[in-house]
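Hi there. Long-time user, first ticket. I'm pasting a complex I've been working with (about 394 residues overall). I'd like to know whether the download I got is complete or cut off, because the file seemed smaller than I expected. Thanks.
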Amino acid sequence: MLTVYGDIRSGNCLKVKWLLDWQGMDYRWIEVDIMSGGSRTPEFLALNPAGQAPTVVLADGRPLAQSNAILLHLAQTSPLIPSDAYDRARMLEWLFWEQYSHEPYVAVARFQRLYLGKTAGEVEARVMEREDAALNRLEAGLADRDWLAGEAFSLADIALVAYSRMAADGGFDLSGRPRLRAWIARVEAALGLDPYD
Amino acid sequence: MLTVYGDIRSGNCLKVKWLLDWQGMDYRWIEVDIMSGGSRTPEFLALNPAGQAPTVVLADGRPLAQSNAILLHLAQTSPLIPSDAYDRARMLEWLFWEQYSHEPYVAVARFQRLYLGKTAGEVEARVMEREDAALNRLEAGLADRDWLAGEAFSLADIALVAYSRMAADGGFDLSGRPRLRAWIARVEAALGLDPYD
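Hi, the file is complete. Here it is re-exported in full:
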């Protein structure tokens, strides 16, 4: 059986849980408390030398890390990966963009506000500006579509919703972004999740 | 014919060039000077609202961004993507790790040293420490293998070598990392590149 080492408060870890639940796959979840160093123990580093959660151990005992690589592996025969080559490429574009231009800002702002107790003004201005731009790009990217890549619900929606729905935790206001809010509700419904807030 | 909008000094853009050359594909290269705002013009933003180079325009006129997503699309029928599912997943893990834990540090240090003229001590300590850890992880990851994913040269080697070979530009010393240096030479030879320095 697949084992997931994940912190249930982390959007990156939740992505993996949601996909497994959506696909009805059996798995064992081992909670890793990132805040108290759970992803830096010798045991964890033996599984993933990068010390990052989530890390999964496949049924044959081999480890795999990086949330979006895990999604692509676990969904490889699923309709969550578009069959059209261009739609699939755009899905990949969103997955890489998420880790480069979205998660590093929203997750940092959320962490500092929620877990370090910083006030809005104490989060680095650059982090706030870049995430604001990322949220604007998502709003624009949803102008003429229900789902991010192609015509159907895909891994891009699962990966991008993880931190988008938590944006308020980082001090971001989605009220002026109606398409983004409607898309978040749509993805939550597709995944069978209760609204985040 | 494929068109690449890229800055020839950027490792992310060079990845795409190297793959196209290795595959013997015809393409048109349009130089974008990122430093002088070439990726923020209205024309460029119409192709890629994220304002990031490289961006390619496929033969049918549709755009695609994110260097590693472009590699995966252009190499989709190539031996550069392992046929074994686990090797393929590990290749993807390296591609996402590259954009999250390697490029954001080495590219920033290189940019500040090479283009802003900062001295070693002026680059943020956090950037130097994280890239040092990334280079250590690469050295360890090459302990028992010639290539990063599976038994053969793959997209992981192309993506990871781009900034690894430029690490000295950012002030990083590879002399204590013999496996990393040997792998850089191996990838350069596979791509038909002259040594970087």
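A couple of notes from our side: Strands of chain B lie at 2-6, 27-31, 55-57, 63-65. The interface with chain A takes residues 49-50, 52, 58, 62, 64-70, 72-73, 76, 85-86, 88-90, 92-93, 95-97, 99-101, 103-104, 137, 140-141 of chain B (CB under 8 Å).
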